[in-house]
Design goal:
Structural class: mainly alpha
Shape: globular
Order of helices and strands: HHHHHHHHHHHHH
Radius of gyration: 19 Å
Family: Belongs to the EamA transporter family.
Helix content: over 70%
Pfam family, one: EamA
Keywords: Membrane, Transmembrane, Transmembrane helix
Oligomer: single chain
Number of helices: 13
InterPro entries: AA-Vitamin_Transporters, EamA_dom, EmrE-like
Number of strands: 0
GO cellular component, one term: membrane
Mean pLDDT: 81
Strand content: under 5%
Distance between the termini: 11 Å
Length: about 300
């Protein structure tokens, strides 16, 4: 039996893809100013500072976080570490359209990983919902012209996106299976997120160290970069991750996975707004397909 999607859960799950879409647009704008791994490290370092007034107690020696360090290290590895690092790596070797298209497989990986590692059943409605959702993403990326998809060429970056999608799916399932010891932290969104950021910064430092050692890394300080960092730390990092965790807790990871496919639609609309282009008919059709997939996947039998 699938979980019923409440209005509160739906709102919580719409917020992250909207903010992540803004992150994609801003990230592209500042890419000449800062290397990708460095941008990710700065983003989460600022997020940690922002959360200190609300969750500094998590860092105390007697905090319940430290006995669970292995779980939080794993949570941060699959999300802040692996997911973000793999996406940034992908954009160095692949095109945005390829990255988004391969990323559209996330609902499918949510279902498969849930079945393989967490013994979660897969319903026929969820399968058809996944098909509709992916079709909506393909429609956005092809701009309603299917011939554009024939020009796609898969590269190594696409493999990174596939790995990132699997990492995010596993992370989401871990969120839905909290340990009894983490109940007190899970009840406080700022403390729970702080626990992930503390260990996530370790993964970010490692990837940034490799970046500055093995690549021509760079950073150019100025108000454009500072403004971008302020946005991506507050929105796509703190607010989006807190909303995603709360939404997954209410709707379950299998249902939540379908909402990720709103990201390319929001990205296309935001890009169109910044470029002064009017939304097209295919945007509306794609939205209808993605939402239909979400609705179908959350309906109960009978």
């Amino acid at each position: 039996m699938t979980q019923r999607l409440t209005p509160t859960a739906a709102l919580l799950l719409v917020i992250p893809p909207l903010l992540w879409s803004g992150n994609a647009v801003v990230g592209r704008l500042v890419s000449p100013l800062v290397s990708p791994m460095t941008l990710n490290l700065l983003r989460w370092a600022i997020a940690l500072v922002l959360l200190l007034p609300f969750a500094a107690h998590v860092l105390r020696r007697d905090s319940v976080l430290w006995p669970q360090w292995r779980r939080f290290a794993a949570l941060s590895f699959f999300s802040i570490g692996a997911y973000n690092a793999l996406l940034y790596l992908a954009l160095n070797t692949s095109t945005p359209i390829n990255v988004t298209l391969v990323g559209a497989s996330t609902p499918v990986w949510m279902l498969l990983i849930g079945r393989l590692f967490f013994k979660a059943p897969i319903s026929q409605r969820q399968c058809w919902g996944a098909v509709l959702s992916v079709a909506g993403v393909v429609l956005v990326l092809s701009r309603g012209q299917w011939a554009l998809l024939l020009n796609l060429r898969l590269v190594v970056g696409d493999l990174y996106v596939l790995m990132a999608s699997c990492a995010w799916a596993y992370y989401s399932w871990m969120l839905s299976r909290p340990s009894p010891e983490s109940a007190s932290l899970r009840a406080d969104w700022s403390a729970f997120l702080m626990g992930q950021i503390v260990f996530g910064l370790g993964w970010c430092l490692a990837s940034t160290g490799v970046e500055w050692t093995a690549t021509p890394a760079h950073i150019e300080w100025g108000w454009p970069l500072i403004s971008a960092l302020a946005f991506i730390a507050v929105g796509p990092a703190v607010i989006a991750y807190a909303s995603w965790g709360a939404g997954v807790a209410r709707a379950g990871p299998a249902v939540a996975g379908f909402f990720i496919n709103l990201t390319p639609l929001f990205t296309a609309l935001l890009s169109a707004a910044f470029l002064g282009e009017a939304p097209q008919l295919f945007h509306g059709l794609a939205f209808a397909l993605i939402v239909s997939g979400i609705v179908l996947s959350t309906q109960r039998k009978g």
